[in-house]
Every structure is written in structure tokens, then in C-alpha cells.
Amino acid sequence: MADEENNHDDIEIAEPSTSDESISDDESDDEEFDDAVDDWGDIDIVEVAGEHDDDEQDTSQESQQDDDDDSNDHNFDPSLPVHHQYLGSNLEEFTGRTVFEEDQVVQLPILRLPSLVLFPGELLPLHFYMPNQVNMVRNLFRTNRTLGVVNLKHSNQQCRYGTTAEIISVHADELEGGVSVKSIGRQRFYIKSTRRQSDGILLANVEIMKESSVTKYPAGFVISKPGCRNRALSKYKNLSPHPSWLYEMYNEDILIQRIKKELLQWNNAFNLSNLPDEPTRFSYKLANGLPLDDNIRVELLTLNCTVYRLQKELDLICRYTMLSCSTCQSPITDKKNIFSMSMNGPMSSFVNPGGYVHDTFTVRKVSNIVTIGQKSLQYSWFPGYAWTIAQCSSCHQHMGWKFTATKHSLNPKQFYGLTRSSVQPVITLDSTTV
Fold it and tell me: Are 192 and 3 in contact (CB under 8 A)?
């Protein structure tokens, strides 16, 4: 059948399972562990925080204090989650890099994923098991190994923005017939037109978006030469009719300094030494690491100017307070409980055996969470830790997983991996960025 032209609204392609079930749903109740966890046995529903009698509440507080002590002696290797070892140990690595020219129009297969907004520089693991998707990936190996990733749950206009993802390694499962890949976000794009192939794969002509590091300044603003921004700012700001803070809001270096200062109040959730120095890469890294909802992330992705993106991020960080359940708004955790188990930062993308991608961020403590089922080491995203399903104690929405160390020498002893789609950031109305 010949390819047909379609409006973007009408296109529905086969996606990885969009069920909110966790990676543990396929586990059997009688799964055996190694000797380090043989004595765990069955795990009853345990309420981490909420209504307790006095004795239970004291025990919970003592456990949380132990977690705080463990966090100060963090000896987990943060490079392990980046390798995504659960995808297989014999991934074939690719060399080279595909970079398109700005404003260039290229044709790419499009993958629409729920609850995912990919930014340049972000690692994205994927598992393809449907025959048409497996064939698509194999065809990409013969060209530029690049596909387009867009968010699924937005309006037509917002769904037209996405990021190219270049495949950097692959593992083919001969028994199951699936393909697991690691990809990395490269460049933002805008979808100009789409068509669907006879096999159901969506193809799109996309325009690679420009990234501007300097935006238009207010009238009377003196633009300095590259490398002399701070000196020019100091020299001319007193000669302008505008206040000095207005100049500073258009200075990338000052914006980054302010962002780093605000992040220190997050209990070192971000390892500032791992953040890039280059302003554009810094803005992408920060946007990916912040637990924000899809609407805000799409807004950050569509901004063409680094200064505007940094301004928006600074404003959000200053007003960010805590995270609540996205369904019932029960308080879940404070921003100071967010910390990094990965060298990529507090949040990373992981994929389960069914192909569902979870944006997951790590926290030390939670409230209004219950854990259910048995602990499991299978397909663990954090080597050395067993996971247990975590749900909201009020509405029973799947929130993520509790991870427990399998060795006494491993710290932290436990932590929580919450899915970004399960929480809603609580952001105050007043801003303190000025």
C-alpha cells in the first residue's frame, strides 16, 4: 500500500505499552533471591508515613533518621545507572555522531511516548518488540541511526515539537525477537508535515530548530563583546535608564550563578560540579533534571533562546517547594529530599521489559506512600538494589518503587524512585527571582 498523507491529529501509531503498571507486574510471587536477600520472605503492605499508632510512628521516625545518616555516607557508584545494564551486557556500540544543520528539513521516523519530553543530551533507553518497530530500528542502522521523539499527551501544536534521538548502542534479543537500544537526545525540531507508512510507522518532515544564546535586549541596553559581558555590564549599567537587575536578567553567566545558588537550598540534589559550563547545555541539563510536569517541560523545550530558558528555570526553582500526588494531591516529598543516585543527576529515563519508559527521580524520604508485593532484583535499574512497588496511600496510584540495598556495606540503605508522571510539583505564585 502506498504511503498516505495524514494530518498530525489523525495519526495513531503502535506505541510501547502505555499501562501505568510497574516493571514488577510480571514478577511471580515465589521469585528467589541470592543469599544476600534470602531472609526477606514475603513483604506485607507497609505504610511509610501516614496514620500510625505511637509505637509505629516512633519506628518510622527512627528509620528515616537512619536514612539520613546513610545519605551522608553515600558509596553507590553513580556511573552504574548510566550504563543501563538491565538492557543486556553485550550491547553493540556505534561510533560517530549525526548532527543536522540548523533550519535543515529532514525526514525521520517519529516515536510518540507518554509522559516523556526528551531534551538534548539526555540518555533514552528504548525497548522495541513490535515487528514494525523492530524493522524500523534495523533500517535506521543503515542510515543515520536517528529518530524523532515527541510527547504523546499534548495538543496538536505542542506535539509538533520534539528532539532527535541518535541510537548509540543496541542489543538484539534473538529469542524474544525484540531490540533494546540506548539513544541520546541531540537536537530540537519542529514537525512540518507527517505521513504514515503502510506498516503503521509515522514519518515526518522536521525542521531542526535554531538555538540562540543571545536574545533582544531592552531599549538602551549596551551589548558587550563575547567574553566581556560582565565587564561591559558593570561599565554601562549605571548609564542606562534601566535598573541593574534588568541587565542581569539578560546575562547568561549571572543567571547560571543565581540558579546554582538556589539549587544549594535543595540539599545538594544536583551535583553542581557535574553541570555543564556552556549556557545552552546547562539549560538542557537543568530542564531534564527538574521534576516538572509535561506542560512545563514542553514549554522549556519550545523556547529558542538560552536566556529565556534560564530565566524560566530560575523562576521555577525559586518558587518550587514540594511534590504531591498528581491524582489526589497528597503531599509526597519535599524538594530537599531529592538527591542524585546517578551521575546524570536526580532524574533519568528508564525502560521496563514491556517497553514503557519512566522518567524516574530519586528521593531519600517520602510520606503517604505504601509498598506492596515482594522485593525483586530482576531488571533493577540500580545494581545492588532490590525494588518494591510503591503506591499512594490515599488513592493507590502507582508512584514508583522503593529500592533496598542487598548488601550491608552499600549506602544509602534505601531510597525511593518516583515516576515524574505520578507527582505534581507544588509551585508558589510569588516569585523571588528579582
Answer: no
